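Fill-in record for Amino acid ABC transporter ATP-binding protein.
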Amino acid sequence: MIKVHGLRKKFKDLIVLDGIDIEVKQGETVAIIGPSGSGKSTLLRCLNLLEKPDEGHIQIGDIMLNAKKYSRKEANELRRQTAMVFQHYNLFKNKTALQNIIEPLLVSKKMKYDEAKKVGEALIEQVGLAHKADNYPITLSGGQQQRIGIARALAVQSHAILLDEPTSSLDPELVGEVLQVIKQIAEKQTTMIIVTHEMDFAREVADKVIFMADGHIVEQGTPTAVLDHPQNPRTKRFLQQSISLPEYSLV
Ligand SMILES: Nc1ncnc2c1ncn2[C@@H]1O[C@H](COP(=O)(O)OP(=O)(O)OP(=O)(O)O)[C@@H](O)[C@H]1O
Ligand SMILES: [Mg+2]
């Protein structure tokens, strides 16, 4: 379970998170949508302290942290509760697909190589890339690299997975295969927060959708409530704009 209360973050004078409250139950998938610059990435980054929040309380699993005052030990414990998947795949170029997945098991979890390899092989199978286990990232498509990144996030068996626009740097034809993998993971009752622009995906997979603007949660609820029957004018406007984005055309 994830509970965030009163989370605030400023970059100099710019208020980026202005009192965020979130609750995610065990096994739930929450999709965060909102305009560029609304603080979505900063929120995810604050949850695992890649960015230092100024104020608020963060609870993930059994670990509770007061953003105003915490020890290094508490910070490390909180970080261990989540795994991140980024827009860019962040794979080690000099390691194979399988080595990339098992790296955190060997390094952070100090698992024996044979044991880690077994876990890694099961995960690479799960993301449909067993046949690419020995490939280096450069020989994988963007979608395949992202699926390896997701398998790596799953490997550490953290309390929750945080995904920041995992498909937005992919060519359109590769988006589907990655969303499919994320959907399968969601169906296995993995707790997930995913920032996404894929409204159809959010509608299909999320238990809850959160619309953020200017560092606030403007509206949240079931996908049907937020995406099909938004109450707030800002949510309505955002959804209209994201539907009516002009297609690129060479004609
Ligand atoms: N390290 C930083 N230093 C200063 N300002 C920052 C930093 N990171 C983010 N910001 C600012 O904070 C605001 C929120 O950024 P954030 O990346 O969280 O937005 P976002 O909702 O993820 O946007 P996008 O949809 O474009 O990814 C923006 O105005 C951004 O310029
Ligand atoms: Mg972002």
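KEY FINDING: The two ends are 50 Å apart (CA to CA).
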